[in-house]
Amino acid sequence: MSTSGSSTGNGPLYIGVSTKMYMGYQASLRWLSEVRSIVDDRPGLGTGSGVQDSPIRVFVIPSFPVLEPATRILAGSPVLLGAQNCAWGDGPLTGEVSPGMLAELGVSLVEIGHAERRKLFGEDDAVVARKVRAAVGQSLTPLLCIGEPERIDAGAAAAFCVEQVRAATGGDSGLLRRLVLAYEPVWAIGAQEPAPPKHVNAVLAQIRAELGPDCPLIYGGSAGPGLLPQLPAADGLFLGRFAHDAANLGRVLDEALLLRQADAPARSSSSRS
Ligand SMILES: O=C(CO)COP(=O)(O)O
Prior knowledge:
Layout: E1 13-18, H1 25-40, E2 56-61, H2 67-73, E3 80-83, H3 99-105, E4 109-112, H4 115-120, H5 125-137, E5 141-146, H6 154-169, H7 173-176, E6 180-183, H8 197-211, E7 217-220, E8 236-239, H9 246-272
């Protein structure tokens, strides 16, 4: 998946959902079918063959066993398929899933370094960095999750996140360009409310200033309908629980489409100048 051309303001908006482990197998399939209908009902999201031209990139990240049937449910739609994790290679890694197998299945992006993986499964910066390289080596797009563990001010939070990105990429700007970054303040994950938009915009703007415009930077953490229009600094949203009711994903997609329609005249006039 190419992530080039993304930057705040006029690049594509990325809107995605992870089911984490909230759904069983059958419930995941039902949810994916609902997502499929919701996307089909919105022609502005484009088609499977035109996904690179769509102003909105929709992705879903179900559990591993659901990936293979998901490819059939989503066939011909513009929805990109992601995985929640990957191994740092293949071979003697019992119980893991290799990036190569994910690529073979039709997965295009893979979450790496989610806060739950870091906290509950002991994934440190070195493991995250190995996984990023392994994923890119199989032409997968790492959805690298970053975020401060506790409530701190925006400047300190941004510095923390930039360090996490540098640790994950080893400062390799070529690698940075291959990522989608998901800013997810750990304290806002699984909460009642997202982080305050003022904080999120300030952190995203500072991360952007440090890292440059080359990779999309989206927000996650208790995100739902109504949030995206309040986050002009974000290139999209990474949703969890509040999009497990698929109708809410539809609402967020409508907001994203409206935002990109509102941008369209500015975009076409700037491309003429
Ligand atoms: O971690 C998240 C997405 O991966 C966010 O989850 P919640 O929206 O459920 O807080």
